[in-house]
Structure formats: structure tokens, C-alpha cells
């Protein structure tokens, strides 16, 4: 990719950071424009023409725009020919995408009420929902801990993949949210392995939840 990738979305967004980290891993040059809460609006006709959901990130591609962070990461790995990040073999690829989908569905649904209440000041969740959310989030993290204990390396197996980009950021969010957490030794060891990666240090373990 000779022309820098155009990324629309503020750098503090966890979903934008997935894309930024993927770019670092894949060696893709990029420019980024601040869109989202506190910056350029995402509810204008111009932005909605790029993403009708009014959400970031969005990337510009030759025939238009792409949205949905996990799909963007898959696309970028393919465009860069990085079969290590997202294998071509159907079964190996499915093992990576299985965990990426788990992050987008099971893990996200667990942390959303907790994060939105404790770090974003939302008042729409009840105490019961908050308590249940913390328990569910910790349960999902315990499931991840068991997987990492099995691989003794990365989420989908012995090698780093896109699954680690999307899940690594969610693990960081879990640690940055002020809740009571169980001790998960495999997750702790996993974070030590991620700390060796410049993309993680720049866009994951960078002080943002």
C-alpha cells in the first residue's frame, strides 16, 4: 500500500485502536482524522454516507468506505498479505475469527454496562445490572484465562494473530475499569508477551481504557 490509509476516528476509541494496532503490525502507513464524541461529528449527512451507523472507525478504500472494526482488521491483514495475522487455510482462519467474533459478541456484551456506568457516567443501568455485568465480565475473562493456559502463548494458538489485537484491547479495558477482579495468571503472562509488541504499547497498553 503506497498511499497512506485514511482512518476516520478518534485515537481514544477502542475500536479505532484495533485498526491502528493492526496497521502497525502489518506495516501499513496511515493518516487519522478525529471523528467521534468531542471531535468532528458522526451524525452529519457526509459521515453517514460513509457509515450509516454513525460510528467510528471508518476507512477509505478504492471503491468507497469500510466500517466495523473487526472487518476492517481482517481486510487490512489480507491487503498486506499477512497470513500470519489471518491465515488463508480455512480451519486456521476460523480459529482466529472464532475468537474475534467472541470478542465482538460475548465479551463486549459483558463489559458494556459496567464500562459505560463506571467510566462513561451512564445512568441507564440499575445496580443489579451493574453487579451482574461485573460477574459476567469476570466469567468471560476466566474463560479467556483457561484458553491462554492451554496455548501458553496467544489466544488462537502459539502465534500472534488478529485475535490478539481485538482481545488484547478488551483485556486492557478490563484492567483499567475499577472493579473487583479475580487473579488470572495466564492473562497476566499474556500481557507480558504483548508488551514486547510496539503496536500494543502505542495503541493498547497506553493508559487508555
What does this protein structure show overall?
Helix 1 runs parallel beside helix 3, helix 4 (90-118) runs antiparallel to helix 5 (127-151) and helix 5 crosses helix 7. With 209 residues, the chain is an alpha+beta fold. Helix 1 links the parallel strand 1 and strand 2 (30-33). It has a 4-stranded mixed β-sheet, with helices on one face. The chain folds into 2 domains: 5-79, Glutaredoxin (3-Layer(aba) Sandwich), CATH 3.40.30; 90-201, Glutathione S-transferase Yfyf (Class Pi), Chain A, domain 2, CATH 1.20.1050. The chain contains 8 helices and 4 strands. The chain has helices at residues 14-26, 45-50, 69-79, 90-118, 127-151, 162-176, 185-194, 198-203, and strands at residues 5-8, 30-33, 58-61, 64-67. The model has no long low-confidence stretch (mean pLDDT 97). InterPro entries: Glutathione-S-Trfase_C-like, Glutathione-S-Trfase_C_sf, Glutathione_S-Trfase, Glutathione_S-Trfase_N, Thioredoxin-like_sf. Keywords: Transferase. Belongs to the GST superfamily. Residues 89-209 form the GST C-terminal domain.
Question: What's the layout of helices and strands?
Answer:
Blueprint: E1 5-8, H1 14-26, E2 30-33, H2 45-50, E3 58-61, E4 64-67, H3 69-79, H4 90-118, H5 127-151, H6 162-176, H7 185-194, H8 198-203
Parallel strand pairs: 1-2
Antiparallel strand pairs: 1-3, 3-4
Helix pairs in contact: 1-3, 1-6, 4-5, 4-6, 5-7
Amino acid at each position: 500500500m503506497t498511499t497512506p490509509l485514511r482512518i476516520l476516528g478518534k485515537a481514544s476509541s477502542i475500536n479505532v485502536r484495533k485498526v491502528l494496532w493492526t496497521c502497525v503490525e502489518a506495516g501499513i502507513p496511515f493518516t487519522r482524522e478525529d471523528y467521534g464524541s468531542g471531535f468532528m461529528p458522526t451524525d452529519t449527512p457526509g459521515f453517514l454516507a460513509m457509515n450509516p451507523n454513525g460510528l467510528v472507525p471508518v476507512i477509505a478504500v478504492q471503491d468507497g468506505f469500510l466500517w466495523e472494526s473487526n472487518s476492517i482488521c481482517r481486510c487490512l491483514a489480507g491487503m498486506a498479505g499477512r497470513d500470519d495475522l489471518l491465515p488463508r487455510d480455512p480451519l486456521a482462519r476460523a480459529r482466529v475469527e472464532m475468537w474475534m467474533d467472541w470478542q465482538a459478541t460475548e465479551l463486549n456484551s459483558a463489559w458494556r454496562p459496567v464500562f459505560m456506568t463506571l467510566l462513561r457516567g451512564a445512568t441507564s443501568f440499575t445496580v443489579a445490572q451493574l453487579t451482574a455485568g461485573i460477574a459476567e465480565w469476570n466469567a468471560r475473562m476466566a474463560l479467556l484465562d483457561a484458553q491462554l493456559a492451554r496455548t501458553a502463548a496467544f489466544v488462537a494458538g502459539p502465534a500472534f494473530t488478529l485475535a490478539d489485537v481485538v482481545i488484547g484491547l478488551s483485556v486492557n479495558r478490563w484492567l483499567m475499569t475499577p472493579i473487583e477482579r479475580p487473579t488470572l495468571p495466564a492473562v497476566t503472562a499474556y500481557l507480558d508477551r504483548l508488551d514486547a509488541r510496539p503496536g500494543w504499547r502505542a495503541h493498547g497498553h497506553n493508559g487508555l481504557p
